[in-house]
Amino acid sequence: MKEILVSECLYGGRIVRYDGGDVSEKNPIFLKWKEEGRLIPICPEVFGGLPIPRPDSQRVGDKVKTGAGKDVTAEYTKGANEVLRLAKENDVAFAVMKQDSPSCGSKYIYDGTFTDTKKEGQGLAVEYLRNAGFKVFAEEDLDKAEAYLKEIETNL
Q: CB 17: neighbour CB atoms within 10 A?
């Protein structure tokens, strides 16, 4: 049985989001994987040493900055490296990451202006995973992720 890396905020059970909010995933596909013990919850920001709650951050070019302009790239990089280490160590099938996040966004991220404007892009941890050859899905693409999992497990 292949395991799946997942943003801990989607996994639930422990609040890790920057705003202290709860966005636990309730999709039946996700809940089935959770029950099967496939999911490995990760939070790049927490791995990087950032607190809960923490200032909202966005990618600004190659940097990650808070709304107040503080550079937190080092913390995000440390977290992304830990996520990549865990993905390799566990030989995960793929990752399901929280959309829009400066770490976990896989299709869209905020544009760095802190005006609630999104743009096509990916978070730092997703960038590291993809550069290492791991497939990454957003939480709204669980049907595609399930089809991919069936495909790879059929070929094992």
A: 19
Per this entry, what is the length of the chain? 156
Specify the DSSP element, H or E, that contains 78.
helix 73-89
Contacts of 155 (CB under 8 A, 6+ apart): none
43 vs 79: CA distance, rounded Å = 8
**Model pTM score:** 0.95
| Rounded-to-integer distance, Cα 39 and Cα 12, Å | 11
Give the H/E segment covering residue 40.
Answer: strand 39-42
Structure tokens given for 40: 């490995």
* Rg over CA atoms, the chain: 15
User: In angstroms, rounded to a whole number, what is the distance separating the alpha carbons of residues 10 and 64?
Assistant: 22
List, in sequence order, every residue forming a beta bridge with 39; answer none if it has no partner. Answer: 4
What tens digit of pLDDT does each residue of 34-75 get? 999 999 999 999 999 999 999 999 999 889 999 999 999 999
Q: 47 and 79 in contact (C-beta within 8 Å)? A: yes
The average pLDDT across 99-117 equals 96
Contact 135, 146 (CB under 8 A): no
